């Protein structure tokens, strides 16, 4: 077996060149350093630990959660002449003995093991007597307590750090937002400088995010650009899925619904039609996701706010797998923020988890309200980078900025004077001096902030309030009624009065549709 990385690449895999950051990562680990590797699925992570394990003296220990997957990898490696094996808990005793004697004789390049097996009595002790070239922890996000794939045994893998402090460690994953990333790095004691993050950019996907002001009309405009194409419309509730699909059928689209409340046969039938159909609009909740491998999904629209920036990335990422231009649109308003807040608050998760969820929501709002390139904000959340992309709404029409200091002060004091319990629409009316029945009934036509915002129109005021929410100067009430209140940062802002640049919403596209149900 060759010991040079490029030669191994050719001899074992039959490839001519490394892809993206593979060469840098492999070199780094061969030199004996730790590495955290965050790349999307299909990015080529396996090579990043297999090649150093082959190149370095000793046996590479690969911790992986999926036994079935391990078997495939082991078979493929063996075929190519690599001495690889999997330590399964269900190996027959004689095979098990033979495997251990190979391990102890130093005859293996790679040993795959599930965390549960690794932690079982005696295994670590015996491994302590062999020379390890590296330890790779695949699907490392499984150690994150707040993630969907949490595996308690992954949490105990820090024992490897203590037992083999001198052995290079690798953690690999395709899914890690900022909090999960930090958790993996600290748990496995891998330095930030050893993180390699790449491959998240999907340059053929166009991103656009807009205020939800007439969602049906906005969706209709969007779909008009995609006649004859297939795509996904994500919404939050089962009911809204059904209603939106029915409405789209009435508009002449071949629209299907997909959500967890449907019976399995119907769901599968709809998925099949989407998979093989020509111009099918799938109106779905997040239940639709796993196992979609349609390459020519041309558009993804979110008519409700997704749960997090990572969910947004994954859901929009279902567009354009074939590499051809694809378009996305997300609509959102303060009622979405209120609802998301309520989900977090009403869940029975521990406080620490709720805090993480709130941070994730904030990251998404930051993306929605950015004046810069959407793609840059999106990628930077994963620790990846790009130049301003030219293929998002803010690149295409850079938002104008204005000095929003005074406006923010007016909005905050209006929220304060009305008792910090009214929603956006009410606050905007008070700012504009609208003498509605409700306002007079509460006597808010007699307060000092009534009509102090006549220099801006209601659309700009709504944009200002959304940005104050995204900036966390204003909180949206946790009961989910949409009442606005001033956060502690908002109070600091009122006291210190720092300059605040805000964005002017881009001009509205011309629009005809009616029926603004949300
Ligand atoms: P991941 O683990 O990141 O999901 P894999 O390691 O399974 O990705 O790689 C995905 C596919 O890309 C595999 O078929 C693999 O053989 C292939 N691949 C990886 N690196 C290269 C490369 N440098 N050149 C060509 N194909 C590659
Ligand atoms: Zn851009």
TrEMBL record:
Keywords: ATP-binding, DNA damage, DNA recombination, DNA repair, DNA-binding, Helicase, Hydrolase, Isomerase, Metal-binding, Nucleotide-binding, Zinc
GO cellular component assignments: bacterial nucleoid; cytoplasm; replisome
Database matches in PROSITE patterns: HELICASE_ATP_BIND_1 (PS51192), HELICASE_CTER (PS51194), HRDC (PS50967), RHODANESE_3 (PS50206)
Reaction equations catalysed: Couples ATP hydrolysis with the unwinding of duplex DNA by translocating in the 3'-5' direction
UniProt-listed InterPro entries: DEAD/DEAH_box_helicase_dom, DNA_helicase_ATP-dep_RecQ, DNA_helicase_ATP-dep_RecQ_bac, Helicase_ATP-bd, Helicase_C-like, HRDC-like_sf, HRDC_dom, HRDC_dom_sf
Any one GO MF annotation of this record: hydrolase activity
Xref: SUPFAM superfamilies: HRDC-like, P-loop containing nucleoside triphosphate hydrolases
Occurrences of domain Rhodanese (ranges): 215-270
Keyword Iron-sulfur annotated: no
Major enzyme class: isomerase
Cofactor: Zn(2+); Mg(2+)
Segments crossing the lipid bilayer: none
Protein name: DNA helicase RecQ
Source species of the chain: Afifella marina DSM 2698
UniProt lineage: Bacteria, Pseudomonadati, Pseudomonadota, Alphaproteobacteria, Hyphomicrobiales
């Amino acid at each position: 077996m060759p010991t040079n990385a490029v030669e191994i690449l050719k001899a074992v895999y039959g490839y001519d060149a490394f892809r993206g950051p593979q060469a840098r990562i492999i070199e780094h680990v061969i030199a004996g350093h730790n590495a955290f590797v965050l790349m999307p699925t299909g990015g080529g992570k396996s090579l990043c630990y297999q090649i150093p394990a082959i190149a370095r003296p000793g046996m590479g220990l690969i911790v992986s959660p999926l036994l079935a997957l391990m078997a495939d990898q082991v078979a493929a490696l063996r075929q190519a002449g690599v001495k690889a094996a999997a330590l399964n808990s269900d190996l027959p005793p004689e095979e098990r003995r033979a495997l251990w004697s190979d391990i102890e004789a130093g005859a293996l390049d790679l040993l795959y093991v599930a965390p549960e097996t690794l932690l079982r009595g005696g295994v670590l002790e015996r491994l302590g007597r062999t020379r390890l070239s590296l330890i790779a922890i695949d699907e490392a996000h499984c150690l994150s307590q707040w993630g969907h794939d949490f595996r308690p045994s992954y949490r105990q893998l820090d024992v490897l750090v203590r037992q083999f402090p001198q052995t290079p460690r690798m953690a690999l994953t395709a899914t890690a937002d900022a909090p999960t990333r930090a958790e993996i790095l600290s748990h496995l004691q891998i330095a930030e400088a050893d993180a390699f993050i790449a491959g998240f950019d999907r340059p053929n996907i166009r991103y656009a995010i807009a205020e939800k002001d007439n969602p049906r009309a906005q969706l209709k405009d969007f779909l008009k650009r995609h006649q004859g194409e297939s795509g996904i419309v994500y919404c939050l509730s089962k009911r809204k899925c059904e209603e939106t699909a029915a409405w789209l059928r009435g508009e002449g689209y071949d629209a299907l619904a997909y959500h967890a409340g449907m019976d399995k046969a119907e769901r599968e039938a709809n998925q099949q039609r989407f998979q093989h159909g020509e111009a099918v609009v799938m109106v779905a909740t997040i239940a639709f996701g796993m196992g979609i491998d349609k390459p020519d999904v041309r558009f993804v629209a979110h008519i409700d706010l997704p749960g997090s920036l990572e969910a947004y990335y994954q859901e929009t990422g279902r567009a354009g797998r074939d590499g051809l231009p694809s378009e996305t649109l997300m609509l959102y308003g303060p009622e979405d923020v209120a609802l998301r807040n309520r989900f977090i608050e009403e869940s029975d998760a521990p406080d620490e988890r709720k805090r993480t969820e709130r941070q994730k929501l904030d990251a998404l709002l930051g993306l929605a309200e950015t004046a810069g390139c959407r793609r840059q904000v999106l990628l930077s959340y994963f620790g990846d980078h790009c130049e301003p992309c030219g293929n998002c709404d803010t690149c295409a029409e850079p938002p104008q900025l204005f000095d929003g200091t005074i406006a923010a002060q007016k909005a905050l004091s209006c929220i304060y004077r009305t008792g910090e319990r009214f929603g956006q629409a009410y606050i905007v009316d008070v700012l504009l001096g609208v003498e509605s029945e409700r306002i007079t009934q509460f006597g808010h036509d007699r307060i000092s902030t009534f009509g102090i915002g006549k220099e801006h129109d209601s659309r700009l005021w709504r944009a200002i309030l959304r940005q104050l929410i995204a900036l966390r100067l204003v909180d949206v009430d946790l009961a989910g009624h949409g009442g606005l209140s001033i956060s502690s940062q908002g109070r600091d802002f009122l006291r210190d009065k720092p300059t605040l640049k805000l964005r002017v919403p881009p001009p509205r596209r011309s629009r005809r549709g009616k029926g603004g149900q949300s």
